[in-house]
Amino acid sequence: MNAAFKRGSEVLQVRDLRVELAGEVDVLANVSFSLAAGEIVGLVGESGSGKTTLATALLRHARQGARIVAGHIAVAGQALLELHGEALRLARGGMVGYVAQDPATALNPALRIGTLLRETLLAHEPALARGVLDRRIGETLVDVGLPDDQGFLRRFPHQLSGGQQQRVMLALAFVLRPRLIVLDEPTTALDVTTQAHVLDTLKRLCRSQGVAALYVTHDLAVVRDLVDRVMVMYAGRLVEVAGRDRLFKAPAHPYTRALLAAIPDIARRQPLQAIAGHAPAPGQRPHGCAFAPRCAKRRAECAVIEPALLGHAPDHQVACLAPLREAMALHETVATVAATHDAAPLLEIQGLDVAYDRQVLFDVSLAVRRGECLALVGESGSGKTSLARAVAGLGENVQGQLRYAGQPLAFAARQRDVRQRHQIQYVFQNPYRALNPRQTIAQILSAPLKHFFGTRGVQAQRQVEAVLARVSLPASIAQLYPNSLSGGERQRVAIARALICQPKLLVCDEITSALDVSVQASILALLRRLQDEGLTLLFVTHDLGVVRAIADRVLVLRQGRVVEQGSADQVLGQPVAAYTRTLIEHSPSLA
Fold first, then answer.
1. What residues make up the domain containing 421?
2. How many domains does the chain divide into?
3. 212-247 per-position pLDDT tens digit
4. Strand order in 373-377's β-sheet?
5. Quick check: 370 and 560 in contact, CB under 8 A?
6. Domain final residue, candidates 265, 299, 334
7. What pLDDT digit, counting tens, does each position of 254-264 carry?
8. Are 19 and 28 spatial neighbours (Cβ–Cβ below 8 Å)?
9. Among candidate residues 433, 412, 384, the one with its CA nearest the CA of residue 563
10. 194, 227, 260: which is the final residue of a domain?
């Protein structure tokens, strides 16, 4: 272990932290841990487990309706919960940096990159001389792998790629030289090569500058080669804390093992095991162990006694009355059985070109057979979404030929007949923008029933409840608005809205990127079942583990051109193109 990680260099100390909603309903309770200089700790768990609540509490912030009511948070010896006013403002950023999940919404679109960095620095260090300020900005941009020339500094956020935007977020955090940095799912929407570069940058900066980092994620595979330790959170409690290698080889809590079993892996095609049931919402925690209702190893006493986080082995703590001690076996590889699909393709594309201010697709041709899943993969900017939107009738400046079920398919959705519109459905990547915030979930799901089929009243209600069950959501959320749901829950609603239209072809644009691994496993299993029933999938993703789990065939795009296509096993197991090999090398794996 690096000498910088000795106990004397402790940067963050959290003791008995408790966050409550109104009515003394706890969101977090009994949370205690510490971080050392240069150490990166992963915080993992399903959506709703309390990860983001803990992350924002480290900035002495709680979302609307919640309060930090007890506990101690010290950063570099400074008691954060005792700060107020100007002292607290300076601590946020100056002492504790924060990198949000979505840089597109976190960066001010009206300010140039140079202005964002200068204003951030001057807000905390107003006495900096112009030369020192410019030098600090330039050094930080180079540190995060961005250009430091005036041309780049004059760009606006929308003129940058997703990876560059996320690096700007890192620069805004590190330019203030914080002691602690909190990262909330910062690579969720990035392609695998960009994600790998961002994570490498983060690791290098934390090591070289002695910054402690808490990395929040729902995907253990992403942090496999990044973190030093892992903390697993469930229903507002830490249930397991261990060094990286030990946690992946011999996880002791049944919940940790369940998370690992739900992760798709590019190294092998395996049956993904979604965790049965739902995590309890705040105020609905059962007596005893909160995970017991979903645990296959539960005992009678688990329903009575709430386990504390205790030492299980050196540098390994677990909150379980009967922790597991044997090493975790890897999944068995499932042999791919050649799927039987109709010989006639459902979707045919010939010589497709798409242009915006520049051409983004060049002479793309493909065919998708009924019941088949074709995955579109490639880096950001490769043209995946442009191709998907053209199929859905949402593209602009499209040329070429589209055929659906043997018939010509118009480029514009408005020019398609009602049968084609309800049979070709699109699920958008961003669930926050895809759902009408002024409508309840029931209204959102009922609208297409009325529009396409004239279904209303009790019959519509029954279909809404049925489709919610298909995407692993309780019927009770039908009366809620989208802002009451987590990101993962919103995405499942978006999928449900497509499924309720009874589609034959489902275009999925990065639909699992915002989902925790258990929900992702249940959604992938659902899509597999729907395939068996004849549903055809055009599946856009940057996650090659997901491709291995669901795709029959893979088409690889680079800068708008097809560079390789074939069966999933062939493309992922024996890639021909150097570009495909690069994508595979940068994909996270548990192997």
1. 345-436+484-585
2. 3
3. 999 999 888 888 889 999 999 999 999 999 999 999
4. 424-427, 505-509, 536-540, 373-377, 553-558, 561-567
5. no
6. 334
7. 999 999 999 98
8. yes
9. 384
10. 227
